[in-house]
Amino acid sequence: MNDRMKRDEADMMKHDPDWEYKIDWTTLGEYLESLERKGISPNVASFVGAGTVRVHELGYANRAPSAEELERMKELVKQAMEEGALGVTTALIYAPANYATTEELIELSKVASTYSGMYIAHMRSEGNAIFEAVDETIRIAREANVPAEIYHLKFSGNSNWNKIDSVTQMIDNANKDGLHITANMYTYTAGATGLDAAMPPWLQEGGMNEWIKRMKDPVSRKRALQEMRTPTNKWENLMLLAGDFDKVLLLGFTNDSLRKNYTGKTLGQVAKLYGKSPEETAMDLVATDSTRVGTAYFLMTEENVKRQIALPYVSFGSDAESSTAAGNFLKTPTHPRTYGNFSRLLGKYVRDEKVIPLEEAIRRLTSLPATNLKIKKRGLLTLGYFADLAIFDPATIEDHSTFENPHHYSTGMVHVFVNGTQVFNNGEHTNAHPGRVVRGPGWKQK
């Protein structure tokens, strides 16, 4: 983080003082070490964001980096890899990450490759242009000589549900060609992100303040509204993919009035209260809240969720923060995957619906991701490995978090040990904080 990035982060925190914290780090390694010093129960690891190094050098500009800027971006990736990053990641649906070209991502991933790292991507499209997005991911893996992972593989919008066979064939073919392409997923038919995923990238260029200015400018607003209503493969419009404004659920505000009046309502419902179109209402909400506004989009089909679970190279990630059902967390709804993703897999899909055997589910929760991420001495019950143990009752494990009442813990998890220390005892936290930084293959111990 450079000084500008720190100022931007501090300005954002002023909008939601419940979540203010001191930025006492500059590099990725320093951030992870600061977490460890404060005391954490789980282990932590991280990739380095391609979007982060882009903002460091270019800010929020929608342009290609100069040769000198690209070299500095590559140097930042090198530093992060040596501090223990697992590889390079990006989120290509969102500005400013989606300003990057494939060639830029290949160059950054080549640096990760020299440290045996990997490339992991929230692809440019999970809907209308998913074939092109998978092609791009495979191309980056091939030309940068890195393993690649698609994070939270999904097929968004009912017109894209039938693309699962073609995409899995693309992945299978790449793996047969000698590449290493994997994926992970969450076990729900709704995704959660923000209203930014319903607005064109050019509208958001320059960061939040410039985004708000454009939404208030009549000419820019009219152009944006037209683009938000027009199907396209040039950018991912989750609002159109949802196909129904009542499938767009509003979850996260910082403005107290918005939080009180509209949390848990759909965009369609709030639009009626505003007396405006849903697209205009979305702009007004972002401008008033000065955030992207946390949102859930109901986009996927249960049949595809089950078919993805059955794929042997798919592991599982909650795509969520590690929160507690108390304090400030209770002020803001969250996606139920935050509390229920893994217990839902083990209870609903393994025990009740028998989509995959229990042993296969355990492999995909443990040794598969540890192997993909090249994390040493974790993921197996083996002599000499770290004692990270999750002990659950397969007969009773169950998720209880819902969109209506998300802040509910799962049941059936009995004991958890992290690095040999018990952090969960008969369903209760022990207040132990033995979590450590888990570093990637390029780590150079100082």
Short description:
With 446 residues, the chain is an alpha/beta fold. It is built from 17 helices and 13 strands. The chain has a domain of 106 residues.
Question: What report would you give on this structure?
Answer:
The chain has a domain of 106 residues. It has 17 helices and 13 strands. It has a six-stranded parallel beta sheet. The protein has a four-stranded antiparallel beta sheet with strand order 10-11-12-13, with no helix packed on it. Strands 6-8-7 form a three-stranded antiparallel beta sheet. Helix 6 links the parallel strand 3 and strand 4. The protein is globular and about 65 Å long. The mean pLDDT is 96.
